[in-house]
Amino acid sequence: MEVKETSIPGVVIIEPRVFADSRGYFFESYSQREFEGKVGPVHFVQDNESCSTRGVMRGLHFQRPPFAQAKLVRCVRGAVLDVAVDIRRGSPTFGQHVAVELTEDNHRQFFIPRGFAHGFAVLSDVAVFQYKCDNYYAPQADGGISILDTSLGIDWRIDPLQSILSEKDTNHPLLKEFESPFLYQNDLLVTGANGQLGCCMRNCITRGSKDNYIFTDVTELDITDADAVRRMVCENDIKVIVNCAAYTNVDKAEDDVELAELLNAGAVRILAEALKENDGTLVHISTDYVFGKEPYNVPCREDQKGTPTGVYGLTKLHGEQAIAESGVKSLIFRTAWLYSEYGKNFVKTMLNLTATKPQLKVVFDQVGTPTYAQDLADAIFHIIESRQMQGNEGIYHYSNEGVCSWYDFTKMIAEYSENADCDIQPCHSDEFPSKVVRPSYSVLDKTKFKKTFGLEVPYWTDSLARCLTNLEHNW
């Protein structure tokens, strides 16, 4: 398929490749893989069809967040003039439109992102119109602007005064009377930007973003300084903070209780309270270590009571509680066994050890799921970019799919990196005395995340292979 840009970035016309001969024609009307590669990661969940007669006008419609929809539309019989109007507050193209004729003969498709009002006028005796949506129909979220608003400057190719409209469509407000629920650009702050997840968030931005990101680490912003945080939020009108900062040394936290509590709970409270004053949303990263004291044997759900086994898990739980007490809008993502190409982590340690040691012992009685930090960053970035935060506040679990022990994890690292000379043996955790008791089972149930955001979660070995390939070629 060929993707043609329009005058409004993100709104595109798709020309499928049609194979025609004397028998008729064939074309691929939709390929998820090709669409994601050429347009972007959109997960369609509903197909709709309407039939209309000449002179009918439908629109200009949208659904309010969190039920907002992106659409991929086409006309399979007859002809329509299809229109998308930018209604994102602050957009440089606010109030502007793109119009395209869709017919059964040209086979064109029209992609309309979230944040646009959409409508069409029927140019033929009959038109059958089909469209895919990336969110389900929610009548309580219906919205619209007047399709007869002359200030929009749309040439409908028919006389609007002679058109056929529903009663609801005749009552939509003019653009100048309309308060849009969509915002074009957010100013975002990413804290802990030099850590694993922060570096992966930087990678996301290289693909382009509609938002303005400010990346900080401790040298740019001390998140334990309430006045400094408040100034940063107010002076930059920060609407979203992605908090990647944390005290993550599990063993050392047992002796460094005050600092762990300050970074994992006190600083989180400061971020939450500053953002609450600016009516923003906090995206916060928590951990599977909030669980562990109770003997679980099924994946942990978001609503389970926190039962941490050590200072690290307890302080991270206190951070979650501080967010709840502040009243700030928030999305908390609990993750597990994070690794990446950056910094110090289990994968990089085991790459070195399996390459240099003849034998290793690795515990097999602690079970969870590794998480590639780039996968988590990609998920967060997608949720922010697609404006799925609003209305979906809460706690979510995100790790890669699957289950393994640290022993299994190490075996796979060695296999993928071809460090076959190292003899890796399983052992019990009590063979490595530690001040903290780690969870024996902390697999996270991701059902809520997948259902809410419609995102696929990669399997842990697939993500590990991607990370190791990157380390081999780029680091």
Q: Which properties best describe this structure?
A:
475 residues; alpha/beta; 11 helices; 26% helix; globular
Quick overview of this protein structure:
The chain is α/β, with parallel strands linked by helices and 475 residues long.
- What structural class is derived from the secondary structure elements? alpha/beta
Overall, the morphology is globular
- Biggest sheet strand order reads 1-2-11-7-13-5
Distance between the termini: 35 Å
What Rg is obtained from the alpha carbons, in whole angstroms? 26 Å
- What are the low-pLDDT stretches, counting only 5+ consecutive residues below 50? none
Biggest sheet character = 6 strands, antiparallel
**Number of helical segments with 4 or more residues:** 11
Mean of the pLDDT scores? 94
What is the assembly state of the chains in this entry? single chain
Total beta strands: 27
What fraction of residues sit in β-strands? 25-35%
What percent of residues adopt helix (DSSP H or I)? 25-40%
